[in-house]
Amino acid sequence: MGRLIPDRSDPGPFKRQKMSIQDAKRLVRAHNAALATATPASVAGILAERTSRNWHWRGMHPFYEQHGAKDVAASFWAPYLTAMRSVQRRPDIFFGNENHLDGEPGIWVVEMGHLMSLFDAPFLGIPPTRKIAMLRYAEFNRVLDGKIVETALFIDLIHLMHQAGLRPLPPQTAAHLVQPGPLTHDGLQYDDADPAEGAKTIALINRMITDIAANSNAGPESTPRDTPREELRRNWCDDMIWWGPDGIGATYTIDRYIEQHQRPFRAHLTNRVFNGHIAKLAEGNYGGFFGWANLTVTPLGGYMGLPKGPAADMRVVDIYRRDGDRLAENWVFIDMLHFLSMQGLDVLARLRAGNLS
């Protein structure tokens, strides 16, 4: 297990007081409430109030890794708040727990939803619409000793481009839309859930991952253990919903998931290497993970309508809703612009050059 680099906000292992899940949740909710009042000029100070001095922040391409509130504000929040007016955070899922994996100490708090705003000025070269913009986000915050010490913020920039009328990729097999929260409308777990329910959720997620490995990583002379439908029915409801990122899209029911995502993914990507996750946790019926990068894959040509390419990383978030003994919904975020950039396609550079329509 690693350790934090000591700083003034880190009292060290001998003075640490174990925080409850509820304490961590309250801190993150207060942090987000304060951010709701931020301006481009004030956001660095607001971020610094509840984050450690050496706060480790991970963002998607082109933001990448930053350290400390000043750098996080300069790279992402100030430009975003300059472009977007009247930003409203609209969470659909909120849960927290200790990391199920070996890792740094602390409580992880997960939130997912949309940042709604008026898109009034250019952002990363994306032209403003002067209309409502819905930016999908998933955020993981690690809380230790009363401070947020680590964050991963995943946003769907290709979805934002689509809202601005841009089409950075060829048409895809699944649907692109503003994605709703859980069917059951119970995703905001502001009160702590029964630990036994979280244990069921993480066990089911782990079983599902094991089944994927058994079937999708078979060697060239091997036969998968199950058909795709047999594999999925063991862990998923028949009416599952896979809320995929723009560039891939969302799909509904096991059969359409196989047709519109699983089959293209497994047929057109090879040499899949699992690199591990940084955080994996569950509370109640909700759980999820993120990695940096979770997967490395080699495109054979045809995936997302793109040509053959070199090995590239997929930095992925998966958030799940469990229904009884099956998974019912799965929200997925992928750092798609980074994945494409590793194959020589810089979408933002093409946008700045006027090569997107």
| Strand numbers in spatial order across the main sheet | 2-1-6-5-4-3
The total of helices stands at 9
Could you report the average pLDDT, rounded to the nearest whole number? 92
- The best one-word shape is globular
Biggest sheet descriptor: 6 strands, mixed
Q: Rg from C-alpha positions?
A: 20 Å
Order of helices and strands: HHEEHEEEEHHHEEHEEEEEEEHH
Residue stretches low in confidence (pLDDT < 50, at least 5 long) are 1-15, 218-222
State the gist of this model.
The chain is built from 9 helices and 15 strands. With 357 residues, it is an alpha+beta fold.
Map the helices and strands.
Layout: H1 21-35, H2 43-49, E1 51-59, E2 65-67, H3 69-83, E3 84-98, E4 107-119, E5 132-144, E6 147-155, H4 157-163, H5 195-216, H6 228-233, E7 236-243, E8 251-252, H7 254-268, E9 269-274, E10 279-283, E11 286-290, E12 295-299, E13 312-314, E14 316-323, E15 326-334, H8 336-341, H9 347-352
Parallel strand pairs: 1-6, 7-15
Antiparallel strand pairs: 1-2, 3-4, 4-5, 5-6, 7-8, 9-12, 10-11, 11-14, 12-13, 14-15
